[in-house]
Structures are given as structure tokens and as C-alpha cells.
Amino acid sequence: MLSSLVLGGAFALTLAAGYALAKIKTNCGKVQPYAGRYKFCPGCSAELVEKDVEGKLRKTCESCGFVHWNNPLPVAVILIPHRDGGFVFVKRKKNPRAGYFALPGGFVDPFESALQGAIREAKEETGLEIEIDRLLFTSSPTGVNEVLMFFLAKTVYEQPVAGDDAELCVVSSLNSLPGEVAFETHRQAIIDYMLGIPRA
Ligand SMILES: [Zn+2]
């Protein structure tokens, strides 16, 4: 009896440890998508080495001088109010957080403005041609190597149609979503907007 309890406990611990590891891996993939992954210089293919550059260890190329600064990536996120009430949400098709609900959005493409990125992402994921009302606020949570820009769209009247990496689109209030919200930053952004809480 005692041994089976011990074994059971050990099994549970192993499971918990495995889960924790998986979680860390998932978070790493999300938090710093490229951190530590570059082995070779994208400019000249020489091997990168870690060196102190301006007070921090950064991957650098001793051959051509390339420095991998690993700056936060810009993400455009859009609150799209719908005539039927609530906002347009997408059910995510891909990880991170596949199967969870999020506001439409994504990484800003090279050389496009964040505003253009917001309009493009909304079109790709929801099929909606939106107009931007204004930038609500930015968010750059500690440990997440991204700068999120939350835009407010003008109210839309058409029904969204899921596309790109959205599995499904729903028009819903935050509380009536048929599933969990993918990101705390999105949930908080909606609440702050609804309550009129000013953000930096
Ligand atoms: Zn190089």
C-alpha cells in the first residue's frame, strides 16, 4: 500500500515535472521567438559568438560585425466593435494558444506601418474591411519580447468570415465567449477600454 502510494506520488511528480517543462518550452517559443536560436550570421554565414555589446551579452558576428539585437517585435491588435454588440474574436488555429479566443492581430510586416498591419491582419483573419478609429494603448509585458499596439476599429456591420490562422470568428462580449481568452493582455485591453481606464 505504502509502496503504491510512493510510486503513485512519484508518477504524479513526473507528470507535473513534464507538464512544467512543456509549459516552459511553450512559453519560450512565445516569449522570445528567436532568442538564442541564431547560430550563424544572416549576413555572411560565419558562426555567431556571444559578446558584451553595450552592457549586455548579444550574439555577434566577428567576421562582418552583425549584432543580433533581439529587439521586441511589434504586434498590431484590433478591438473591432460589432453592430450586434461585443467585439469580433478569432479562435486561433495555430500555437501559441491554438483553440483559444483572441482579438484579431499579428506581427507588423516589414516596412508597413502598424496601422496598415492592423488593417491587413483584420482583413486576413476576419474578412472585414475595417477603418481604424484610433490607437488605444500599447502594452509590452515584462518577459514578453513584443510590443503590442491595441487599435480601436470603427463599428462594423458585416459578419466576419474566418481566414488565415483563424479557425473561427465570433461576435461576442468578453463574458459570453464560447471558450477561454488566449492572452491576458487582450482580456485586460478590452476591460480597460470598456471601463475607460487610461493606459500608458
Ligand atoms: Zn557576419
Description:
By secondary structure, the protein is of the alpha+beta class. The chain has 2 domains: 37 residues, no CATH class; 123 residues, Nucleoside Triphosphate Pyrophosphohydrolase, CATH 3.90.79. It is built from 3 helices and 10 strands, in the order H-E-E-E-E-E-E-E-H-E-E-E-H. The strands form 3 sheets. Strands 7-4-9-8 form a 4-stranded mixed beta sheet. A 3-stranded antiparallel beta sheet has the order 1-2-3, with no helix packed on it. Strand 5 and strand 6 form a beta hairpin. The structure holds zinc ion. Zinc ion binds next to loops.
Write a brief structural summary.
With 200 residues, the protein is of the alpha+beta class. Helices cover 28% and strands 26% of the residues.
- How many domains is the backbone divided into? 2
Numbering strands along the chain, what is their spatial order in the largest sheet?
7-4-9-8
State the shape.
elongated
Bound heterogens, unique = zinc ion
Fraction of residues in helix = 25-40%
Number of strands: 10
What's the story with the biggest beta sheet? 4 strands, mixed
Give the CATH topology of the largest domain.
Nucleoside Triphosphate Pyrophosphohydrolase
- Average pLDDT metric: 82
H/E order of the elements?
HEEEEEEEHEEEH
Tell me the name of the CATH homologous superfamily of the largest domain: Nucleoside Triphosphate Pyrophosphohydrolase
Please give the oligomerization state of what you see: single chain
Radius of gyration: 21 Å
Low-confidence stretches: 1-34
User: In the CATH hierarchy, what is the architecture of the largest domain at level 2?
Assistant: Alpha-Beta Complex
Please report the first level of CATH classification, the CATH class of the largest domain. Answer: Alpha Beta
The SS-based structural class is alpha+beta
- Total number of helical segments? 3
